[in-house]
Amino acid sequence: MRKPISNLNFSFLLGLLIVATAIAVAAVCALLVNIVQRKQEAQRPYVRLVEVGEDDTDPARWGVNWPKEYDSYKLTAVSTRTRFGGHGGSEAMPAEKIERDPWLKRMFLGYAFSIDYRDRRGHAYMLADQELTQRLTKPQSGSCLHCHASVMPLYRKLGDGDALKGFEKTFQFTYKELNAQLHQMGHAHPVSCVDCHDPKTMRLRVTRPGFLQGIQALAASNASVPHLPSIGRWREGARTQPYDANAEASRTEMRSFVCGQCHVEYYCASKMPLMFPWGHGLKAEDLEKHWDETLWEGGQRFHDYKHAESGAEILKAQHPEFELWSQGIHARSGVACADCHMPYMRDGATKVSDHWVRSPLLNVNRACQTCHHFPEDEIKSRVDTIQERNHDLLQRAAAALMDQLDAIAAAKADGATTQSLTPALELQRKAQWRLDFIAAENSMGFHAPQEAARILGEAIDYARQGQIAAFRAPRSKK
Fold first, then answer.
1. pTM score, whole prediction
2. Is 15 exposed, middle or buried (0-12, 13-18, 19+ CB in 10 A)?
C-alpha cells in the first residue's frame, strides 16, 4: 500500500503549483503586453518629431523621424569590397581603374575619363568624389549634378519655381558654377531622402526630370518592356496624357524606378540638356540607334568625343545598370533593385528597407536567400562564375579594340587618310560603345549574364571587323 501524503509534502507541492502558476501567468501577461506593443509599433512605424519638406535635403533632419533608415544609410560611408567591385570607403580616394586596366585610358583618349576614372564608393561619397575628380581640370557641365546631389531646390531656383525649366538650363552652366550655387543654398548633400520619398506621405516617387522624360519616351515607343507592366497598361489605354511613373507605376516598379533615376545611360555635357536615350528601347543597340539619330545644332551627328588617336566619333556609356537589369531574369521575375540592394529587415515589429545600399554578395541571407534556398557558399560560387566569365570576355573585347587601334595607327602611318579609314572608324564607334556599355555597368555582367555576353561578343566582332577594315584601307601614294 502507498503511504499517504503528509501535510508537509502536500503544502510543499501546493506551493510549487502556486509559484509555477504565477510564473506562467506572468509570462503570458508579458507576452500579451509585448504583442500589444508590437502591434502598436506596426500601426505607427514612425513618429514625426520634426516636419520635413521639399527643401529639406539634409538626411540628418529626416533621420530624426526615421532613425532606423538613417542609421543604415550612414553605413554607405563604410568601406565594402567584392571580388569584382567595391569601393575605398573611408580611404582618401578609391583606386584608379585606368591604372589597373590601361586599355581604359587608351579607349578614352580625348575624353576626361582618360585623366581620372576610379572605383566607385558608396552613396555617402557621390558628391564629394565628383567634386574631387581630376576630370574637373577640363570643363564639365552643370548637368552632372543631376545624379550626384540633392539638386531639386537648385532646379526650382533656376526655373523660377519650375524644376523642369531649371533642369533644362543646367547644361548652360559649368559644373563649378552650379556646384557653388548648391553650396551657397545649403543643399550640398548627396542624393537624399527627399529625392526618393514624398515628405508628406513617405511614398516612393521619382523626382529627376531626366528619368521622367526618358520613361515617357520609352512608354510611347514600341519597345517590348514585359518587366514594366504599368507601361503595358498605359499603352492599352486612351494615352491622352504622357505616361506618368509617379501615378501609373506599382510599388514594385517604383522600387526600381527610384534607382533608375541615376543608375542609367544618359548624355551629360554642354551642348544640350541632359537626356536619357530611351526612345527606341533599353537594349544597347536601341540606345545606340537613339544617339545615331541625334544631331547637334548645325546637323552634325551626335558623339561624346572624338578619339584623340584615331579620330573616330565615340559614344561614351555612363553606368547603364537599369538598362542591363531590364534584360535579365530578375527583372522579368518582378524582382526590383531594392529587393537585392536594399532588402527588407526586421526591427522589432517593423519591417524596414535596409538603406545601406551595397552589393547583395555582402548581405546574402536577406538579399538572396529569401528566394534562393541554397547555402550561402553555393550562391556566392554561382555569382563568382558568372562574373569571372564576364570579366574574361570583357578583357578579350578590350584586347580586340586595342588591336583595332593599333591597326588604324599603322594604316595612318602608312598613308591612309581619314576618309579611307571611315569604315574602320565607324566599326570602332560600334565596338567601343558595346565594350564600354558593359565595362561601365557595375554588376560585372550579373544583372543579365546572357545579354552582357551577347554585347561583348558583338564588341569583339566589330573590333575585329574594324581591324580588317584598317588593314584594307587604301593608302595614298607617298
1. 0.90
2. exposed
